[in-house]
## 1
Amino acid sequence: MRTIVKIVLLILLFIGIDRGIGFIINQGLYRYFGLNQHSEVLFLGHSHLMLAVDKSKFERETGVKVSKYCREGVNVADRYVMLKHFLSLPYSDSLKYVIYGVDQFMFTGKGLSQNSYKLFYPFMDNKTIDSYIRESTSAYDYWLHKLICSTRYSDALLNSSIRGWRQDWSNYKIGQLDVENLRQQIKDGKQRHIAFETDLMADFENTLTLLRQKGIITILVNTPIAQILNEYEPEKYQKFSSYLQSKVDSTYVYYWDLNPEFSEKYDLLFDPIHLNVEGQQVINSVLVKKFQSLNHAQDIRCNSSL
């Protein structure tokens, strides 16, 4: 009998410690992604947008609360799930703008992680995320992570949690793009190609539709990518640009393409697709000014309609 009691107590102790660890790590992640606050602006994207935005500075200079739900390696389908996740939270009622990162490879599935659902393990207690993970993995894998919280966290997630507790959204990419190496990679066929996969395009269309239904303004932001990379498939690049332009309207969807002004300023790039520390400072200032202008115009429009 005593042995049974000890086993039960050990199991309960394990569950308590496991849940406690999960709670602490999750709170850091909520802080890091801004899932614990009422925000007017949601940055939604992968590492391109993540490294382009200084969350703290953007908030200070615009005077609005910002959530920065950007994750490395997530594709358009993942971001659609991320949006639904955010909208399912009680803090989403204040959301007015979604600043959505776009690039010419967003409809190319090849090159991104096929296991990106694992990034969402920490949030599988949320109904939206739970359904996504259940559909993406095996029953064994699902229940393992569902029942044991401490299995949900990779080193990258732990680092994000620590940064959330520290309120650290800095860009640590120091260095500049090796232009000649990039030219050689393109010559050797080692760079990604532009594609238009229908399932990813459908997820993007669904994202825009959902935001429009919610009355939320979408700002599509193409952060700078090395011009050499932009030029190597010109017809496909033009097709991509035209497609995004076709989504623009005067009410709910805007498109800010920062490539024409900055794609040849290679000193701002860490690699062909990511900004370095200096690049983040420059692009963040541009985004602040453009957002302030748009937000002011929206305020005038709202006041004139009253």
## 2
Amino acid sequence: MADIIAHTVKAFDDDMAQLRSLISRMGGLCETQIAAAVGALTTRNVDAAAVVVADDARIDALESEAEALAVRIIALRAPLADDLREIVAALKIAGVLERIGDYAKNIAKRAGALAQSPPVEPIVIVPEMGRVVISMIKDVLDAYVDRDVALAQRVSDRDRRVDDFYNSLFRSLLTFMIENPQFITPSTHLLFVAKNLERIGDHVTSVAEMVIFAVTGERPSERTKSDDTATLATDF
């Protein structure tokens, strides 16, 4: 009987390790996709942008694999308490990461369009926004793997920086378009790009909150931050 129990525990641990690995791989791909999309935007590289769009399918495939594994673990292992919370959180995190991948793909599509237009000066803010959200994804994945509540909270707190970048870029673009009406179309594309990065920051914050829930069993109190971006432009 002891051997059977030990085997069952090991099989469960192996399944959980595989689930964590899938989530980490998804997150790593999201980091790569965002960096590549922003890079294609700043270098005006249409071919690189097309690669990002095509590679989004890899994130979708990993989400399906993670979802199937999580459902199988629940069906076969009947996990309870902490283990069940972690599996449910992993399911939700996989869905959020898939959405982040979609935003990276959307940025790449805009990069292709912007490459056909004259350069827009406020674009210099975008790479820094990209670096912040990429660092947030990396840290929230570390928090997920290490079950680090303090790190997850710090990631959530950093979302304000992304909002500040977006607000700054919005105002810069508004002034730029007033002074250079011939740049309205590419400026609009760039505004969509910035909004996608701002939404990625929001989604990473959601992942951080899921990590906190998985570890503590407590849902973080509803965020009290005022979303200034909502007053500047609609959610694209």
